[in-house]
């Protein structure tokens, strides 16, 4: 029996029917080839870009005031024409209590207290500060406190979805994916009519009655929607559900691209969204272990004009190496029109896949010059791994320690150095704790922002 706190919008129409589709990019006719003359003049702010990634969504400023001067972050996000009662997402029983036991002692900070009706604006600003400092676990806890504090209006969908995106993203970034997956179940069926605004009825003016009407608008931000679909597939232990849901979203993107009411700016944004969905389909297929289907889907994306050739080649090479098809990966790297630096990085990966660590070290050494210092640090870290595979543990340890002393502390670096400590010393725990203290001191002195956990140092 539904309670008063868990009311839903009455279903005024059936859920969107699932249509048969080959895949997100398998349409024979390019929906982008609609003549420009058939599209109405854009009414959206110029220069705005779509937000596709949860990480980009995470770094936007949370604004308490919703003044008319605030510009939308997405050029195709439409305002919700009908309020939704989202009180079922404000239930404290949904959100798990978080602990800092998995964070090394030098990086622990106390959780912030829940806000009151008088401090909600200040609390949202504090949440922005936590995000800017990459204190993801504290931000996840604080976002959950705000959601369950009783200070939010249940119909303020913009703020509720914003806080949910922060909560899920911070849980993932702090290594609590399973908790985020369990909490995402509370969203229930994202394809139900509850999450859609009925489009305004248009006068029939085209030959195709279906295309002459606007496509229903989903009230949830697109990035959060994709994130929630993946988390739900993990929470329900059903990866096929996640891939099927992505195919439905891809079909919806294609409907927006084909609609005559879609402006040129909107068409560009929906095209980028379709590309994002396609990449997530590939990732979902890889997680399912269906590498053949993943490679065919990724191969079909090569024909898309806006796909970066170097990024696509790197993704395909990594997938081929995952499949064990080293010969095909090598042939692809040789035939690709890549810059020398990009080709050198790919060849080093292939060499490691073939077990030729001398060649991998040679390729990595040749790729150090003339690159960004952060990229050079990653190359040197890969070089240390190549030395480790060659049995040169001392040389590998020296390289990694030099990087840590220079102020670098990304996860792969600390994990690899901790592994070498385990292999080369009986006092590995003391060495690891010394590294933790050193990194913590560097963070205080340089203001370097990064989230750390015990797993980053193999503690």
From TrEMBL:
Residue ranges annotated as compositionally biased, kind Low complexity, are 31-46
Q: Where is the composition biased (Basic residues)?
A: 1-11
Region spans: Disordered? 1-82, 440-459
Q: Where is the composition biased (Polar residues)?
A: 61-72, 449-459
The protein here is known as: MalT-like TPR region domain-containing protein
Q: Which organism is it from?
A: Exophiala sideris
């Amino acid at each position: 029996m539904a309670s008063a706190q868990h009311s839903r919008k009455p279903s005024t129409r059936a859920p969107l029917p699932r249509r048969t589709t080959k895949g997100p990019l398998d349409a024979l006719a390019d929906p982008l080839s609609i003549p420009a003359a058939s599209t109405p003049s854009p009414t959206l702010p110029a220069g705005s870009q779509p937000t596709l990634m949860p990480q980009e969504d995470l770094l936007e400023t949370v604004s308490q005031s919703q003044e008319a001067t605030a510009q939308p972050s997405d050029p195709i996000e439409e305002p919700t024409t009908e309020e939704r009662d989202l009180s079922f997402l404000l239930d404290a029983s949904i959100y798990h209590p978080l602990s800092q036991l998995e964070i090394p002692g030098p990086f622990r900070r106390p959780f912030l207290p829940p806000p009151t009706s008088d401090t909600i604006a200040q609390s949202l600003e504090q949440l922005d500060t936590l995000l800017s400092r990459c204190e993801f676990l504290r931000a996840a806890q604080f976002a959950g406190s705000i959601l369950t504090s009783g200070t939010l209006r249940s119909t303020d969908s913009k703020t509720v979805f914003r806080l949910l995106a922060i909560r899920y993203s911070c849980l993932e970034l702090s290594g609590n994916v399973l908790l985020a997956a369990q909490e995402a179940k509370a969203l229930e069926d994202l394809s139900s009519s509850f999450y859609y605004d009925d489009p305004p009825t248009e006068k029939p003016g085209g030959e195709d009655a279906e295309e002459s009407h606007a496509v229903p608008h989903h009230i949830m931000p697109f990035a959060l929607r994709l994130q929630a679909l993946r988390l739900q597939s993990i929470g329900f232990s059903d990866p096929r559900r996640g891939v099927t849901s992505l195919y439905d979203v891809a079909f919806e993107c294609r409907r927006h691209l084909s609609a005559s009411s879609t402006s040129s700016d909107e068409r560009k944004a929906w095209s980028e969204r379709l590309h994002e969905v396609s990449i997530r389909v590939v990732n979902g297929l890889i997680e399912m272990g269906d590498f053949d289907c993943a490679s065919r889907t990724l191969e079909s994306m090569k024909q898309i004009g806006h796909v970066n050739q170097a990024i696509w080649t790197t993704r395909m090479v990594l997938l081929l190496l995952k499949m064990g098809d080293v010969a095909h990966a090598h042939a692809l790297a040789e035939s690709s029109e890549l810059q020398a630096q990009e080709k050198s990085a790919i060849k080093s990966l292939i060499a490691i896949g073939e077990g030729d660590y001398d060649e991998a070290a040679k390729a990595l050494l040749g790729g150090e010059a003339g690159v960004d210092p952060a990229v050079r640090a990653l190359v040197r870290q890969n070089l240390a791994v190549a030395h480790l595979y060659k049995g040169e543990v001392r040389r590998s340890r020296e390289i990694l320690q030099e990087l840590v002393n220079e102020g670098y502390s990304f996860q792969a670096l600390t994990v690899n150095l901790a592994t070498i400590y385990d292999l080369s010393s009986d006092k590995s725990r003391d060495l690891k704790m010394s590294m933790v203290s050193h990194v913590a001191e560097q963070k205080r002195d340089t203001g370097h922002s990064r989230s750390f956990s015990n797993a980053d140092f193999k503690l």
